[in-house]
Amino acid sequence: MSMPAENIDIDTNIKEEKKEFHPGRPRSEKSRKAILDATRRLLTHMPLSELSIEAIAKKAKVGKTTIYRWWPSKAAIAMEAFLEQPGVQNIIPTTATSEEAIEKQLESLIRQLRGQNGRIIAGIIAESQGSADVLDLLYDKFLKDRVSPLHDHIEKGKADGIFKKELNTEIALDMLVGPLFLRVLSGEHGIDNIFAESYPAQALLALKV
Amino acid sequence: MSMPAENIDIDTNIKEEKKEFHPGRPRSEKSRKAILDATRRLLTHMPLSELSIEAIAKKAKVGKTTIYRWWPSKAAIAMEAFLEQPGVQNIIPTTATSEEAIEKQLESLIRQLRGQNGRIIAGIIAESQGSADVLDLLYDKFLKDRVSPLHDHIEKGKADGIFKKELNTEIALDMLVGPLFLRVLSGEHGIDNIFAESYPAQALLALKV
Amino acid sequence: MSMPAENIDIDTNIKEEKKEFHPGRPRSEKSRKAILDATRRLLTHMPLSELSIEAIAKKAKVGKTTIYRWWPSKAAIAMEAFLEQPGVQNIIPTTATSEEAIEKQLESLIRQLRGQNGRIIAGIIAESQGSADVLDLLYDKFLKDRVSPLHDHIEKGKADGIFKKELNTEIALDMLVGPLFLRVLSGEHGIDNIFAESYPAQALLALKV
Amino acid sequence: MSMPAENIDIDTNIKEEKKEFHPGRPRSEKSRKAILDATRRLLTHMPLSELSIEAIAKKAKVGKTTIYRWWPSKAAIAMEAFLEQPGVQNIIPTTATSEEAIEKQLESLIRQLRGQNGRIIAGIIAESQGSADVLDLLYDKFLKDRVSPLHDHIEKGKADGIFKKELNTEIALDMLVGPLFLRVLSGEHGIDNIFAESYPAQALLALKV
DNA sequence: AGGTAACCGAGACGGTACGTCACGTCTTTAC
DNA sequence: GTAAAGACGTGACGTACCGTCTCGGTTACCT
Fold first, then answer.
1. A98-207: same fold as A26-70?
2. Between 20 and 30 A from B148 (CA), which of A120, C63, C131, D92?
3. Percentage of residues in chain D with pLDDT exceeding 70?
4. C11 — pLDDT class (breaks 50, 70, 90)
C-alpha cells in the first residue's frame, strides 16, 4: 500500500479536557444525524457517484450550507456515515500469533466490506481518483487502522520463519488486501460467500513457506 | 476476478468477407482520430472525472452529436484512446512454462499500467462504480484479454506441481492482479520502480510450493 | 394592406411554350407529393412552429436534401401544401355589384380560413415575423389574389355612392380583412359559426353610407 | 376579439398589506433589470424568433436558471420588457363621449405599437401561434386593458344612436383593432405616418350612422 | 448503346440552443 | 454563530434540428 503519510489529529485528545469557548449557536447534533442518516438511506438506492449534496439536504431537511460547513465533499459524508454504523468499527485483537492475527483481520475486513458497505467504500475509492483529498481521507479514516497493523504481523511472521523471507513486506501487504478491494470494485458479485469463507486461509497459504 | 462471462462476437470473422452496405455518408475517420487525440491530450492535464464531453468536442473541433453517436460514455472514449496507443496492445507469448508465461504477462501489464496510462485505467475503474456498462466495457476491452490467460497458466502450474495445489485458482488470479490495480488506484506513487521490477517474481513466489 | 410590391413571375407564360432542356434525372413527382402529404398530416397534430423538416423527411421517406432542393423554408412547404388542397383555390366572381363581389370574396376567404386551414395560415404569418422571405411568400401566393381584388370594388363602391367617400381605400381594405386575420390568430375559437355567418354583411355595413 | 375570459387577481390589493414571509435569499432586482434590459437591447437587433434565452443570459451576465426560474418563455420576458418601458402604460381617459374615448384609445394604441415596440408585439403574436400560454399572456397582460374598454364605448355609442345599431359589438371591436394588428404584422412599413394620423377618425367613420 | 448530369435515399457532419441538474456561494430571517 | 431556505452565476449534461456534405444508386435525354 503506497498511501500518504500519517496525519495525526493532535486535537483529538485535547478536546475532552479543554472546554473551548464557542460563541454563538452550537452545532446541531440533530442536523448532523439527519444528514448522515439521509446519506445512508440514499446510498441504498444509488451509487455514491449519483448521490448529490442537494438530495441529501432535501432528504435531511437541512440547508446545503450546513453540509458544506462541516464536510468537504460527499465522499467525506459517506465515509462518516459508513464508519458510524455498527459493525464497521475496527477491533484490533490483542494477543495472537501472526498467522491468527492476519486471519482475524482479514475476516474482519471482509465483514466490513460485504454488501452495501462495500459499495460505499467502492464509491469512495472511485471519488478518490479525482481528488487527492478524498484519497487522504480514505487512508486516514479507513485504511490506516485496518491495513497497517498487518504490516507488523507480516514482518513478525517472516522473522519467525513462518512466512517466506524473500517476500517484500510492502508487496505482501498488497497481496493480502489487493484481492479484497478488487472484488469490492467488481460490482454485484464482488465478495461472494465462497470468497468470504476461503479467502483468509488462502491468503495466508500464499505467504507461508 | 468475478467478471461477466465471455461474450464471443461471432460476426468478427464474417466482417472481413461480407462488405456490408451502409447507406448515407460514411463515418469520418478524421473526426474519430481528432476525438481520441483530444481525449488523450486532455487526460494528461486532468483526471477522467474532470474531463467533459464538451471539452473534447471543443478541442477536437467536432460536434457533440458526433461523439454521442459513436461512444456511450466518456469512459468508452477513454478506453478506446487508451487502447489505440502504441505499447498497450496485449501480446500473448507463444511457448513458455507456466511460470515464465505468468511472469511475462505481469511484466506486460505493469508496462501498460505505469504512469499516464495507469491513471486512465484508474479513471475508468472509478467511472465503472456508477455504471454497469462501463464495468462490462472494462472487462471486455481490457481485462478479458490480459487477465484471463493467467487463469490457465495457474491451473497448469498447479497440475505440474510447481504451484500450491490447495490454492483456489480464482483467488490466486485475484492475488496476481489485485496488487497491481491497488497500486494503480493509489495515486501518484502508484507503480514505482521498485514495485515494477520486483513484483512479477514476488507474485510467483507466493504461488510456488 | 401595406404589402410588398408585386413580383411578377415573368417565366410563368414562357414555361408552357418553351420546353427547356433539363439534362439529368427529372424531379420526382412522387417525392413532391409525399412531402406535401406528410406536411399536411403532421400539421393536423402540431402547429407549424413545432413542425421540423426532419420530421417531414422521415414521414415522407425522403432525403432532407430533396426538401431543401425545392423549398426554401418550412413555411413555403406549408404554403404549397395548403394551396394544393381542394377548396382553397380562389375563384374571382365574374359579374356582380361591388357590394356582392365583396360579400362573396369575404365568404370565400372565411371558408378558406376556417378550422385546420386557418391554423396553417396563422403559422405562416407567425413564421413571417422572423423572415422577410416568408412575408413575401405570404403576399405573393395567398394575399395578392384574395385581398387585392377587394381594393377595386371598394373604389367602385365609393364612386357609385354606396360606400362612404371619406374612407381611405387602403384603410377600408384593412378594415375588411383585419378582423378576419385577427380571429385566425386568436386560437381555437378563432372563426366561429356566428362570426362566419354574420361577418360579410357586418363588414359591408361598416363601409356603407 | 375572441379572447379568454377575465381572470381577476383577487390578491392584488391584499399584497400591499400582508407582507408574506419568504424564507431564503430574496429575488435579485439587479438581475431582473439586467435581463429585461438585455432583452430590450437584443430585440433592437433581431426579431423575437431569433432571440435565444442563452443570448439574454450571456448579455445580462446572468445564469440561465435565473431566467427560467422567473419566466416561462422568451415571449414572457419580451412582454415584461415591453410593458416596463415608458410610454406603453395604458391610461384610461376618465370622462369623454364614446366617440372621443374610442378615438383617444386608438391613438394611444397606435402610439404603443409603432416602430420597435410594434415589432415586439408582432413577435409575441407569432410565438403565441405555437403556445396557448403565450396567447393567454398576450391577452392578460396587453389586450385586456387596452382592447376591452372599447367594448363598452361601442355599446354606449350604439345606445346613444351615434353608431349603427345593427353592428354586432364583438365584430365592431374586431374592426377597430384588426387593422392595427394587421399593420403591425405587415413588416417594416407597418404603421406609417399616414395610417397613424388618419386611422382613428377613419375607424370611427365606419361605426357611425 | 453509352455518356452525361441532375436527381434520389440515407445518414453523418459541425453547429446552436434547448431546458435541466448540481455545483458551491451568497443573502435573508430566525433561533 | 449556526440554522433553514432558497436565489445566485456557472458549466455540463444529453437531445433535437439546423442546413450542408458525401456516399451509392437511379433515371432521363443526347449523342
1. no
2. A120
3. 90
4. very low
CATH 2.30.110.10 for domain A26-70, yes or no, is no
Domain ranges of chain C: 26-70, 98-207
pLDDT score for A90: 77
Confidence category of residue A191, pLDDT binned at 50, 70, 90: very high
What is the reported pTM? 0.88
What's the rounded Cα separation, in Å, for the pair D7 and D1?
16
pLDDT confidence tier of residue D208, bands split at 50, 70 and 90: very high
**To probe the interface with D, which of C51, C185, C193 has the most D CB atoms within 10 Å?**
C185
Those residues whose C-beta lies under 8 Å from the C-beta of residue B105, and which sit 6 or more positions away, are B92, B93, B146, B149, B150, B153
Rounded Cα gap, residues B90 and B113, in angstroms: 12
**Residue D50 pLDDT:** 97
Q: Output the pLDDT for position A111.
A: 94
Name the residue with the least CA to C1' distance from nucleotide E27. D25
How far is Cα of residue D81 from the mean position of the Cα atoms in its chain?
11
CB within 8 A of D99, min separation 6: which ones?
D157, D162, D204, D208
Nearest-CA distance B126 → chain A (Å): 4
Question: Cα separations (Å) of C9 from C15, C80, C91?
Answer: 11, 17, 20
Decide if A104 contacts A136 (C-beta within 8 A).
no
Top CATH class of C98-207 equals mainly alpha
Look up the CATH number of domain D25-70. 1.10.10.60
| Subset of residues 44-103 in chain C with CB less than 7 angstroms from any atom in strand E | 61-66, 69-70
